[in-house]
Amino acid sequence: QVQLVESGGGSVQAGGSLRLSCAVYGYTLSLYCMGWFRQAPGKEREEVGMFEYQSSRTTDADSVKGRFAISQDKAKKTLYLQMNSLNVEDTARYYCAAATATCSTAAVSDFKYWGQGTQVTVSS
Question: Is residue 34 within 8 Å of 51, Cβ to Cβ?
């Protein structure tokens, strides 16, 4: 069983930064891909970026490219989402998720494990 616990959300003014953390607990050898997703009220869930365990390769959505960065601390089994130059459109609840498929092949349905989410609110 795998558990994911996000933290680091909060309120920030436009142009500010936040770093989200996703601590991974349990049996992680079956995991190949970690993803960050977000969902704003009234909007569909959106992929923010992904991290491939085997290669440490990351991918970012166009909407956050150049502003957000994913990294990992292997020893702490923690995934991070560094968010810079935040704007109002980044306001959402952010979730980390883990898939038993590689990032290149994983559909949203392959992300079997989800955290509870952490709220990010950006004000103008």
Answer: yes
